């Protein structure tokens, strides 16, 4: 526990962190990777290049400072980050490295304003914060390894099938190489894939949502090809699309993530997705059909057109069931899309459309997709009076703000 004086000092730095947080975290990553380049084998290079990781860390540090006297208040955030860390194989020995360079970055950015008193307080506070993360993640490691069919770290999986789903999305069906039991997962969770790509200085780890219901003898991920092979995300997705073949081996971590369908409820569910954000929604939709066949579910997907719309046939087949309704939005439909009536609405999902077509009352809403899409959906739902506890969403990558 921290003493009252230390807590007071940390709280006094909150306005400074609000102003300089991103500069501090940007400098933190520069220093840490400069001294420990081996950690580039773990961190997502694309998120670093785009600045998303820096923003996410700044937000976390800011929240930790604000709630330093009540860290239970940020436990949901800790658990969300903990899932990511567990799937990346972040271990307790990494935390002193992070702490050292975070303190160096604070001192470097704030200069003389970072007095010895402030630095001493932050050193104590970081240890308390790190201990919370380490404790939460230890439970997650234990659960992942000791569950039925579970494992620790990365496990070899065979690419059993590779299926082209659209012009930009391909599915990979993965089965354990050892042919032993496969751990189940909650619909909405993801796995991490560890890739050692020839010609790349560092390994790459990417997290992909599981796009089928649990209970199968495989995991399925559906990967979007990122255009522009000069960016790190493009390197990974293009490698998977172009180089990985059926029969190849991929290293996979046990399923993780807290964006999951609540199957203890029987209230209506609305699943909204944009682009490749449909992958966790497919797992949720198929799970409802399999284990809650009386539960009403509305599936709403937005895509550019039919050429890039993946897993369409699966949704259309499920939409024949009494409890499933599906709507497809295309913002740039092709002539073939129009000719074959392959979409329901031309344009984007709007507040007015949701109000008219969707049963708002009592429903739980789950959504995922590009950040602008998610911001719009979140704003619409709030405007329509949907309570916070009924709104659930997932960012692909570091956390961001929907406000």
UniProtKB/TrEMBL annotation:
Keyword DNA damage annotated: no
PROSITE patterns in the cross-refs: FAD_FR, GLOBIN
MF annotations from Gene Ontology: FAD binding; heme binding; metal ion binding; nitric oxide dioxygenase NAD(P)H activity; oxygen binding; oxygen carrier activity
GO biological process, one term: cellular response to nitrosative stress
Region of interest called Reductase, as start-end residue ranges on this chain: 149-403
Alphabetized InterPro entries for the sequence: Cbr1-like_FAD-bd_dom (IPR008333), FAD-bd_FR_type (IPR017927), Flavoprot_Pyr_Nucl_cyt_Rdtase (IPR001709), FNR_nucleotide-bd (IPR039261), Globin (IPR000971), Globin-like_sf (IPR009050), Globin/Proto (IPR012292), Hmp (IPR023950)
Involved in heme-bound ligand stabilization and O-O bond activation (site feature) positions: 29
Catalytic reaction annotation: 2 nitric oxide + NADH + 2 O2 = 2 nitrate + NAD(+) + H(+); 2 nitric oxide + NADPH + 2 O2 = 2 nitrate + NADP(+) + H(+)
Superkingdom to which the source organism belongs: Bacteria
Keywords: Detoxification, FAD, Flavoprotein, Heme, Iron, Metal-binding, NAD, NADP, Oxidoreductase, Oxygen transport, Transport
Family statement drawn from the similarity comment of this UniProt entry: In the C-terminal section; belongs to the flavoprotein pyridine nucleotide cytochrome reductase family. Belongs to the globin family. Two-domain flavohemoproteins subfamily.
HAMAP family, A to Z: Hmp
Record text about domains: Consists of two distinct domains; an N-terminal heme-containing oxygen-binding domain and a C-terminal reductase domain with binding sites for FAD and NAD(P)H.
PANTHER family, sorted: FLAVOHEMOPROTEIN
Protein name, entry field: Flavohemoprotein
Species this chain originates from: Neobacillus thermocopriae
Lineage, broadest ranks: Bacteria, Bacillati, Bacillota, Bacilli, Bacillales
């Amino acid at each position: 526990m921290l003493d009252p004086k230390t807590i007071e000092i940390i709280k006094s730095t909150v306005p400074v962190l609000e102003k300089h947080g991103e500069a501090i975290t940007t400098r933190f990553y520069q220093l840490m990777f400069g001294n420990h380049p081996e950690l580039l084998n773990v961190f997502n290079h694309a998120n670093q290049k785009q600045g998303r990781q820096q923003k996410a860390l700044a937000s976390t540090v800011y929240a930790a400072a604000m709630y330093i006297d009540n860290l239970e208040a940020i436990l949901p955030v800790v658990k969300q980050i903990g899932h990511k860390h567990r799937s990346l194989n972040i271990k307790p020995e990494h935390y002193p490295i992070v702490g050292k360079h975070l303190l160096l970055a604070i001192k470097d950015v704030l200069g003389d304003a970072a007095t010895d008193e402030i630095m001493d307080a932050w050193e104590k506070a970081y240890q308390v914060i790190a201990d919370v993360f380490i404790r939460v993640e230890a439970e997650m490691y234990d659960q992942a390894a000791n569950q039925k069919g579970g494992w620790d770290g990365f496990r070899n999986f065979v690419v059993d099938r590779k299926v082209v789903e659209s012009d930009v999305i391909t599915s990979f069906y993965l089965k354990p190489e050892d042919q032993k039991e496969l751990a189940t997962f909650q619909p909405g969770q993801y796995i991490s894939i560890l890739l050692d790509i020839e010609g790349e200085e560092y390994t790459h780890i990417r997290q992909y949502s599981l796009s089928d219901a649990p209970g199968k003898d495989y995991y399925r991920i559906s990967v979007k090809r990122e255009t522009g092979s000069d960016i790190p995300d493009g390197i990974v997705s293009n490698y998977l699309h172009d180089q990985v073949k059926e029969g190849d081996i991929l290293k996979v971590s046990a399923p993780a993530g807290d964006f999951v369908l609540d199957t203890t409820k029987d209230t209506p569910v609305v699943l909204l997705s944009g682009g490749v954000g449909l992958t966790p929604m497919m797992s949720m939709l198929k799970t409802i059909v399999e284990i809650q066949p009386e539960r009403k579910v509305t599936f709403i997907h937005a895509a550019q057109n039919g050429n890039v719309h993946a897993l369409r046939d699966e949704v259309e087949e499920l939409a024949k069931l009494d409890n499933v309704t599906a709507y497809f939005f295309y913002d740039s439909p092709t002539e073939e899309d129009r000719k074959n009536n392959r979409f329901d609405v031309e344009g984007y999902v709007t507040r007015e459309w949701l109000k008219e077509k969707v049963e708002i009352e009592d429903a739980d809403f789950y959504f995922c997709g590009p950040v602008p899409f998610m911001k719009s959906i979140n704003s619409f739902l709030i405007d329509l009076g949907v309570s916070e506890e009924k709104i659930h969403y997932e960012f692909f990558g570091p956390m961001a703000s929907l406000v």
